[in-house]
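Technical annex B. To support the medicinal chemistry partners, we prepared a structural model of the target in complex with magnesium ion, based solely on the information shown next.
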Amino acid sequence: MKDRIYFSREEMFIMNRDLLLERGVTINDIAEVAYRQQGKYNPNISMRTCVESVEKILSYRDIFHIVQLSIEIDRLCEEGKLRSPIQEIIRADLGMFGIDEIFGLNIASMYGVIGQTNFGDIDVNKPGIVKELNDHGKGDNEMCHTFLDDVVGALAAAASTRVAQITSEETAKKDPHFEPIRFDI
Ligand code: MG
């Protein structure tokens, strides 16, 4: 697998899942943030749909590249392998840095403006695993989660928005005036 640069969606999902796990993040942790956020608007959503959404999002190629690169930057920073001054800037999780938020926004924008605003909400309020990562990746702690907290928050925002899309689709189909249309795409 060493020389390959193309991977199937199943392979990308497994590599993302395993690397996140290595950094202490489970699919359930991410799904819980999505569930908590979307549950405010749609009380009937299920945790199962949130988990499925996180799994699906983790299999996309763009997401694969961002997750893998982000975790690699955090790891290199922990090992002191980056050069000054970017080593110290990432290590300090400098508030004015913002490249980690760009990665997060890029993930969230997969689900449009709503995805981005959902990411903003998670970024500000830091629910569940996002707060844990943020707290454990700062100061004298040996862990660096400068990129991971934003990536995880954005994955949750994307999953939450996907669940909202599914709910909208279901609502449309429940309308008594709804008539199924057959078309091939
Ligand atoms: Mg960050």
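Notes passed to the chemistry partners:
The CA atoms of residues 75 and 144 lie 7 Å apart.
DSSP finds nine helices and no strands in the chain.
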